[in-house]
Amino acid sequence: MEPGLSTTLTDTDLATAKQKVTDALDEQGFGVLTEIDVQATMKKKLDEDMETFTILGACNPHIAHRALGVRPQIGMLLPCNVVIRADTADDTGRTLIVEAMNPDLMGSVTGEQALTPIAAEAGELLRRAIATIAAP
């Protein structure tokens, strides 16, 4: 099982990528609850420079509600993190990688069989969002 779902965006900037990711997630019923600018945080807290790195906390409330009803501790794995980060192999800074946690991990980490169909649904929706992001 892959730990994440990903795609690469070329010739783009962070603002454009964030909008594309947010729109694709919204189309699949996810909202962005949190945004962490890791690059700015590392600069502020450690005075360290790093490449573009943003974490969006995405949540589909219907799926989250069902998962929490099966096992409240699943909240430790929510929201679904979606990362937008610079491809460090590209020195132009115009290639960004978008990665999302594979929700199938919820079932495998907990061993809770009742989470399997819920995780599969979340995974399918995130895969659709990633496919939309990857589309030209």
UniProtKB/TrEMBL annotation:
Short name of any one Pfam family annotated for the protein: DUF302
* Record protein name field: DUF302 domain-containing protein
* Superkingdom in the source lineage: Bacteria
InterPro entries per record? DUF302, TT1751-like_sf, UCP021774
| Residues of the DUF302 domain | 36-102
